[in-house]
């Protein structure tokens, strides 16, 4: 029988030194074998890599990866065992669940167990509360060969994989005994920023949220760093009043995060609110933005067929993309519409340009930019002309509030112009994948906890705390380093969602 491996679990509340503990563990080991560090997101990988680099840790001491990238790496090496093809051209279609199951099959083979044991002295898994059952089974399989420490916090488990069979109590607690050597009980994030009182209050609130219904929490006798405000809102005014109230409480300096509850019926409500704010915050998009891909698919169709007429094409660019990202985008004046309606595929471009000779200033520029798209024959030249039109629309807008989406679209066009083998849609996937890998930098933004988990901000504004789940509220509170502002609308976001659905029926 092989020697049993050591397993342990460290409960890691937000801001209590977990990343530093992982780094110190890697640095302290004096062995020729490596440490295998697995986490869930590329942002998490980047954060750990930066911290290890700051400690001048030799990169030969560790391998660092997301769990899915680790699974995919070995599954592609052994397609007959995993069911994952070796050569993948479309990464958007990867079946990661199959890759996870395939990796379990691979590391169930004795030769691969011996390989793990020879290469690694320790496995560290971060953010264990975000594991699915397949990922948990992979970790258990790896633990058969190497010692393992897992870090996690049940109160940050907001992705909820219970529907896939994984539960904290049944799977984590039964598989990993709590560490006797390592405890994380100091709020270092707030101690280091000179706000220990705020950190202690968040830690106390975390314990209350574990056992109490969120409706029983009373936000009274608060530290000086926490402010509360109430405001009036109705079904008709909810978006505008919330936008105004958030704007009124945005600090002049420092990083800022405004958080809206995660309501399935209102996934994009933070975009709507951002568009109405008089002090702009950038609205965050999902990495797998369907709006981006749908827009690029529509443009791809136009590039292939050129059947969409000029007015229709302009409205596609403006209505489907530009108006979702900025305010004050220019509509087509009637004088331009009438002239563009004369266009057919048999039109003489010189005659059409003469038709617009009397247009002045911006109208003349806009008219000719649209005609430029139809004056060229190859797809790349048309795409370049569309990008020029997008730049013009951007220059004439008033306020951009969704830069993440807008610049991803423009970056997809730029990629398309230099890569003749890819469609515009494929370029969009590449751009999002690249951003996912290198991480996104946020400074003054609005979103929800699913989009901002793991990030830190100087100031956090939380709209309608009682509409959050206990876990989502804790994650929201623990993003703040310096101050928290709690906003209480007279109409809750859940009530607003119900009323809006009834209105649309």
Question: What would you say this structure looks like, in words?
Answer:
By secondary structure, this protein is α/β, with parallel strands linked by helices. The chain folds into 3 domains: 4-186, 3-Layer(aba) Sandwich (Rossmann fold), CATH 3.40.50; 193-284 and 442-503, Rossmann fold, CATH 3.40.50; 290-436, no CATH class. 50% of the residues lie in helices and 13% in strands. It is built from 23 helices and 13 strands. Helix 22 links the parallel strand 12 and strand 13. Helix 1 (18-28) packs across helix 2, helix 5 (96-106) packs parallel to helix 7 (133-143) and helix 10 packs antiparallel against helix 22 (470-477). It is globular. 38% of the residues are buried. Residues 7-104 form the UvrD-like helicase ATP-binding domain. InterPro entries: DNA_helicase_UvrD/REP, P-loop_NTPase, UvrD-like_ATP-bd. Pfam families: UvrD-helicase. One of its GO terms (molecular function) is hydrolase activity.
């Amino acid at each position: 029988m092989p020697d049993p491996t050591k397993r342990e679990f460290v409960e890691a509340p937000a801001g209590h030194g977990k990343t530093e503990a992982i780094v110190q563990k890697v640095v302290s080991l004096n062995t020729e074998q490596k440490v295998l560090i697995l986490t869930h997101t590329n942002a998490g990988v980047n954060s750990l890599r930066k911290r290890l680099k700051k400690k001048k840790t030799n990169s030969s001491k560790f391998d660092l990866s997301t769990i899915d990238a680790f699974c995919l790496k070995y599954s592609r090496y052994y397609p007959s065992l995993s069911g994952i093809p070796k050569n993948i051209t479309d990464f958007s279609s990867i079946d990661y669940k199959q890759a996870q199951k395939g990796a379990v099959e691979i590391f169930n083979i004795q030769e691969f167990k011996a390989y793990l044991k020879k290469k690694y002295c320790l496995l560290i898994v971060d953010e264990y509360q975000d594991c699915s059952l397949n990922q948990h089974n992979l970790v258990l399989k790896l633990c058969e060969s190497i010692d393992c420490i897992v870090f996690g916090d049940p109160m940050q488990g907001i992705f909820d994989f219970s529907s896939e069979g994984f539960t904290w109590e049944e799977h984590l607690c039964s598989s990993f005994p709590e560490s006797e050597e390592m405890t994380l009980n100091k709020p270092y994030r707030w101690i280091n920023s000179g706000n220990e009182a705020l950190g202690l209050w968040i830690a106390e609130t975390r314990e209350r949220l574990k056992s109490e219904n969120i409706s029983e929490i009373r936000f009274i006798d608060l530290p000086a760093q926490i402010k509360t405000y109430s405001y009036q809102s109705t079904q008709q005014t909810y978006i505008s009043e919330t936008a105004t109230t958030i704007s009124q409480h945005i600090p002049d300096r420092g990083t800022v995060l405004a958080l809206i509850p995660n309501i399935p019926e209102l996934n994009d409500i933070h975009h709507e609110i951002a568009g109405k704010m008089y002090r702009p915050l950038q609205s965050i998009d999902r990495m797998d933005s369907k709006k981006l891909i749908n827009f690029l698919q529509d443009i791809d169709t136009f590039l292939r067929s050129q059947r969409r007429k000029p007015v229709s094409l302009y409205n596609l660019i403006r209505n489907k993309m530009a108006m979702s990202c900025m305010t004050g985008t220019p509509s087509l004046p009637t004088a331009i519409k009438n002239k563009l309606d004369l266009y057919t595929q048999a039109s003489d471009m010189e005659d059409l340009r003469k038709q617009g000779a009397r247009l002045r200033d911006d109208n003349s520029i806009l008219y000719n930019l649209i005609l430029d798209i139809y004056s060229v024959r190859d797809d790349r030249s048309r795409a370049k002309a569309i990008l020029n039109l997008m730049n013009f629309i951007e220059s004439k807008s008033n306020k951009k509030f969704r830069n993440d989406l807008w610049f991803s679209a423009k970056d997809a066009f730029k990629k398309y112009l230099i890569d003749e083998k890819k469609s515009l849609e494929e370029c969009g996937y590449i751009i999002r994948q690249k951003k996912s890998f290198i991480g996104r930098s946020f400074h003054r933004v609005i979103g929800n906890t699913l989009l901002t988990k793991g990030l830190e901000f100087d100031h956090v504004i939380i709209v309608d705390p009682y509409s959050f789940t206990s876990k989502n509220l804790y994650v929201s509170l623990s993003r703040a380093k310096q101050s928290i502002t709690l906003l209480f609308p007279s109409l809750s976001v859940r009530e607003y969602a119900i009323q809006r659905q009834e209105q649309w029926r």
